[in-house]
């Protein structure tokens, strides 16, 4: 729960970076990512509650990153997704060790979701590397990202 909310904070800070550059489409993309991370946290919360587990909410740390350029920001997002994937895989392996099939089944959705999230983050980087050196390319990317809506 904590790590998903921390991811939401990270993506909100990335959105603010893009807002400061007046790249509203990029900002929109990361605001939606932040919202999705909050939904993920609540999925964990609901799962634990349904299974009569005590929830101990931990502090949510502010992102500890100084954004230097757009590529570095996009790479930060991918690094975060890979980190979350490792955490989910670790929880899955622990559940497997104790034959907790219910938790393994629950985490299956997250495993698929993380694959999708890593691919989206890598795609942003790839597109930026292709078109980011050209102001028209940035404009087009920003315009495209502004079309993204919350699921």
What report would you give on this structure?
The chain is an all-alpha fold. The protein contains 5 helices and no strands. The chain has helices at residues 2-20, 24-50, 70-97, 101-131, 135-145. Helix 2 packs parallel to helix 5 and helix 4 (101-131) packs antiparallel against helix 5 (135-145). The radius of gyration is 17 Å and the shape is elongated. The mean pLDDT is 93.
Shape label: elongated
Number of strands: 0
Q: Could you state the order of secondary-structure elements as H and E? A: HHHHH
Share of helix, binned: over 70%
Main sheet attributes: strand count, strand direction, barrel closure? none
Count of helical segments? Answer: 5
Radius of gyration: 17 Å
- In angstroms, what separates the terminal alpha carbons? 20 Å
Poorly predicted ranges (pLDDT <50, ≥5 residues)?
none
Classify the secondary structure makeup into a structural class. mainly alpha
What's the rounded overall pLDDT mean?
93
Determine the strand fraction and express it as a percent band: under 5%
């Amino acid at each position: 729960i904590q790590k998903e909310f921390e991811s939401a904070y990270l993506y909100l800070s990335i959105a603010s970076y893009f807002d400061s550059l007046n790249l509203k489409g990029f900002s929109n993309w990361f605001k939606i990512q932040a919202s999705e991370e909050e939904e993920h946290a609540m999925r964990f919360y609901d799962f634990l509650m349904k299974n009569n587990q005590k929830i101990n909410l931990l502090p949510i740390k502010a992102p500890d990153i100084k954004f230097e350029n757009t590529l570095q920001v996009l790479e930060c997002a991918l690094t975060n997704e890979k980190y979350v994937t490792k955490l989910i895989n670790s929880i899955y392996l622990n559940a497997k060790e104790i034959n907790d099939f219910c938790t393994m089944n629950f985490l299956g959705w997250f495993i698929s979701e993380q694959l999708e999230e890593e691919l989206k983050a890598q795609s942003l980087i790839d597109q930026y590397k292709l078109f980011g050196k050209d102001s028209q390319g940035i404009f087009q990317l920003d315009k495209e990202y502004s079309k993204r809506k919350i699921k």
